[in-house]
Each structure stands twice: as C-alpha cells, then as structure tokens.
C-alpha cells in the first residue's frame, strides 16, 4: 500500500476540467509547477517548496495556465489577457525565478505550451506564437533579454482558423514541428473569472486539430514569416498529448 507522502498547500486551479500544472527537468532536478489562486507555486519532486510567484501589477488576478520552458526554465503564467514570464536563475543549488516581462493579448489566455526551441504557444479565443528576439541575436536564453515578439496569430472563427469555439488545450509536439488544439463551445463566455464557477454550460468539440508549419505561397523557405495549416479528425478524448 502506497502511503501519502505530503500534502502541498493550495488548491490547484483548473479551467474546464484541465488542471493548471506543469513539470520539467532542469539540471537533474524535476520541478513541479502549478497555479493556486493568484500564486504560481514551484516545488521540487521531493516536495520541497522552492518559490511562490505572483502578478504584482494585479494582485487579485487568478492564474489560468502555467508552463515551464524545457530550454532554460523560464516560467510562463497567464493572468487573463496577460502572460507573465519569469526568468530562471540556475546558479544556486535550486533554481530561482524573477519577473522578466509581460506578453499582452487581445483575449484571455486559457492554455499555453512551450516548444523545445523556446517558443510559446498561447491559446483561448486566439491562438498565438511568441518567440524571444534576443535569443536569436545573442544565442542566450530567455533571461538574456525581454524582447519577445508575436510571430503568428489567428482568432477562432476567422479565416484560417476554422473553429467556432475557444481553445482550452494546446500542446507542441516534442520536435516543435506541430501543435495540436481542441476547444469547447459555450453558452456563457469562458474567462478566468469562471475558473471556480459552474455557471458556464460546456460542450466539448469532437475534433482535435493538428497544425503544421508551411511557407506562404510564393515566398522562399527560411523566411521568418510563418503560416499554419490544420488537419482535423473525430476524437472522443478531453485531453491531448504528443508521444
């Protein structure tokens, strides 16, 4: 019989049944990250509390999604339309994080995912991809600078993103060449204020969309301009994961 090891403080936030959690290995240490109320909490896999992070510009804001970069440990946490980035300092025995910058969106960010090369996929009513410009110029990690740019974005229901629903789950493939999404239709708008509310009636999509990078027609390969196509198939699950 397996015995309970420890109870960690704070109830984990969830959106539409998807828990606000992530886990990444850094320097042979596995870190567990989750959103609890307004806090973004970091533990080691041995259940030692490392740090609690918060949006100091909006103390009452609730964490909607969290993710840790597998490249350099940068943490992304969504608070409504803002995604806060926290740079990772790995010089000590355990990592520590400090505020880096804020990525502002035009709609609430419900979920996010890091690619293996350090790009951030954010999704909700809009699907967007961000990348660190300083990393390209200087070869450093996200902590090398705070110059992030939006490289691609499409809104649900718009041409090119054939979905009438908000995206509630998104994930990059392990090689970063693809990402997958699925969403839900709502009889009440989904936003961060409904994280603990039962007032929204949810109807999940039965399609998982897989997105791939393609070159715009008539342009040479290798340009920074990007576009994405999509392929869908009926799928009965309420979660997704690349293997």
Automatic annotation (TrEMBL):
Top-level taxonomic group: Eukaryota
GO cellular component, one term: RAVE complex
InterPro entries tied to this protein: DmX-like/RAVE_component, WD40/YVTN_repeat-like_dom_sf, WD40_repeat_dom_sf
Gene3D superfamilies the record matches: YVTN repeat-like/Quinoprotein amine dehydrogenase
Membrane-crossing residue ranges in chain numbering: none
One annotated GO biological process: vacuolar acidification
Protein name from the UniProt record: WD40-repeat-containing domain protein
